[in-house]
Amino acid sequence: MGYPTIYPTGATVYDPDKCWNGYTVFQANQVGATIIDMNGNVVRQIQKMHGFPNKLLPGGILMGNRGRRNGKYGYQDQKDLIQVDWEGNITWKFDQWEYTEDPGEDAGWMALQHHDYQREGNPVGYYVPGMEPQTDSGNTMILVHKYTSNPNITDKKLCDDVFLEVDWEGNITWEWICSEHFSEFNFSEESKNTLYRNPNLRAQVSGGVADWMHINSMSLVGPNKWYDAGDQRFHPDNIIWDSRIANIMAITDKKTGKVVWQIGPDYDTSPELIKMGWIIGMHHAHIIPKGLPGEGNILVFDNGGWAGYGAPNPGAPRGMHYAQRDCSRVLEIDPITLDVVWKYTPEEAGFTPLADNYKFYSGYISAAQRLPNGNTLITEGADGRLFEVTPQHELVWEYISPYFNTQYDTNMVYRSYRYPYDYIPQLDKPKETAIPKLDRTKFRVPGVTEAPPQNVIELEIGDAYESAAQLCIVSDDDE
Question: Which residues contact 250 (CB under 8 A, 6 or more apart)?
């Protein structure tokens, strides 16, 4: 994407009267779990506690993980999932999924956790009035990896996705293994052929592993109006998830393990899907919980970028990542009618239609959270940008992460969440200071002066003048 090399970091926009004010939690690149106030001040940071993602629980409690398995032997495997109190004490831990004996590494138990987890009491991991996650008891749903094989999918070793439910003592009480449901995912024969040959192979892992689905979010459906009306697919205990590589969003029945609701992997198979448009490489698909504006609808960060298995085409000569789009969208979708009831796209962001779509774009990671006042907190993860918009798409808060990777020039943020101030009773409510939007035409590096333009001449051309931007606007009707 077009991107400046020098730009402000920290909080850059803040309208206290229009925001849903609170603390924002995210993973500071290579640093640790970080909590900021609305003015971007760090109020808490636990270094070396990483977030896949980090979540805040009532009482100033943080959840996250410590340590990653050596990348030679596993892909994005976290060693454990932990809960840490305000004093930094670990009060809960899970690592009892697989005992590993990797060459040259200390043998031991690992969780192999990745991308998501949910603590009992709250279906989605972010703040919902009346749905507080438990902190000293309860079960935890965890997304983990399992290394296995399935010749019906590919002849490569699978880096498979598994949902685990564990009790407070760490005992596994339920599991769902993705590869066992391959026949339910509606892959076309062309997609199956491409998937067999190239199942998103991660060659950096010893022997190579097939990250064939790459499920990146998993939450409970939670209480909702659809189930209240008799639709059993939306049972509160069911699990909604998405596959970043296969372009699938689905709901798994907790009792039977069957997929009972799904869209994707293709989005040209019905008038409703064609109207919605292709969802590509999505992240953080979840049901907006009961009690929040939009309750019962699906909220998802539609990354665009590259994803999917299908027939070869000029952009994907071997059929891998055959769906591509260089811009992102946040969509709120009615799961019954598949109508898009709210969206945030480059157009709502104010960019020139089609020509400047790339200016709202994160081809990987990212998230969206519905806030109690109807606003939406968006994580545009690839460029470390967290921002809040109103239902009318007005930007009322923006924060650019100042934490950059020391190896690559990236300040990426996987996911962020907003929580109320009273989740951290150890702190006084912070001062809220408005940050007006800067006039970019006048913003300069401090201490640098600029002389007014000289030798300016204005031509007489009447009323027919059009700016270059006006001349270059492209519409959907242009051929």
Answer: 185, 240, 241, 242, 243, 259, 261, 262, 263, 264
Residue 2 is assigned to a structural domain of this protein: no
Cα separation values, 210 from 112, 148, 201, 293, 363, Å: 16, 10, 4, 39, 20
456 lies in some domain? no
Torsion 418-377-9-362 (CA) sign: positive
Token pair belonging to 478: 């242009």
Residue 471 lies in a domain: no
DSSP per-residue string spanning 177-226: EGGGGGGGS---HHHHHHHHH-S-EETTSTT-EE--S-EEEEEE--S-HH
**What are the pLDDT digits (tens) for 226-283?**
999 999 999 999 999 999 999 999 999 999 999 999 999 999 999 999 999 999 999 9
Tally the domains of the chain.
1
CB-based contacts of 386-395 (< 8 A; 24+ apart in sequence):
386/24, 386/26, 386/413, 386/416, 387/13, 388/19, 388/20, 388/418, 389/344, 389/348, 390/18, 391/293, 391/342, 393/344, 393/348, 393/349, 394/18, 395/13, 395/437
- Report if residue 462 sits inside a domain: no
Q: To 5 degrees, how large is the angle CA 443–CA 448–CA 451?
A: 85
Q: What is the pLDDT of residues 175-231, one digit of tens each?
A: 999 999 999 999 999 999 999 999 999 999 999 999 999 999 999 999 999 999 999
Residue-range definition of the domain harbouring residue 134 = 10-449
Burial class (CB in 10 A: 0-12, 13-18, 19+), 406: exposed
pTM for this entry? 0.95
State the Cα torsion 46-50-52-57 to the nearest 10°: -20
